[in-house]
Amino acid sequence: MAMKIRLARAGSKKRPFYRIVATDSRMPRDGRFIEKLGTYNPLLPKDSEDRVKMDVERIQHWLAQGAQPTDRISRMLEAAGVIAKKERANLKKAVPGKKAQDRAEEKASKAAAAAEAANAPAEE
Question: Which domains, from first to last, does the chain contain?
Fold first, then answer.
C-alpha cells in the first residue's frame, strides 16, 4: 500500500481549511484517511502559530513506515525542522527562449550600429 502524507480540504467555499492526513495514495483528496496528523489554515497570517499545527511524533512514525509527503507538506516539515531541506529545481521560467534571445541580440546590434552612424561626423 502506497502511503502519502497530504492535505485534505475542509472548510466552506472560499474559506479553505486543510487537515494534514496519512492516507492511501489511491484514495481521493477529501476521501477516507487513516490518521489525522495536523491542520493547516492558510487564512491566518504567516507568522501565526495556529497556521500550521502538526503532531510531529506521528508524522515521524509515518515517515519511518515509508509514507511519502507531498511537495507542500514537505515544505512545511522542512520549515518545522522535521526533515532536511532538499535541493529543488530552480526553474528558469523568466528567461526568454533561444529565438527571443537571438532577436534581442540582433536588435541591440542594429541599435548600436545606428547610434554609431548618427555619432560619426558627416564627411563633405
Answer: 3-80 (3.30.1320.10)
Q: What distances in angstroms separate CA 23 from CA 38, 39, 42, 50, 98, one per listed residue?
A: 13, 15, 21, 23, 44
Cα angle: 5, vertex 37, 53; to 5 degrees = 110
Let me know: does 63 contact 35? Beta carbons within 8 Å.
no
E strands present in 11-71: 17-24, 35-40, 52-54, 68-69
**In angstroms, rounded to a whole number, what is the distance separating the alpha carbons of residues 72 and 62?**
16
SS3 (DSSP) at 37:
strand
* 19 close to 10: Cβ distance less than 8 angstroms: yes
* Alpha-carbon span 19 to 31, nearest angstrom: 12
pLDDT at 30 > cutoff 90: no
The reported pTM is 0.68
Q: Cα separation of 118 and 27, whole Å?
A: 70
Higher per-residue pLDDT: 94 or 39: 39
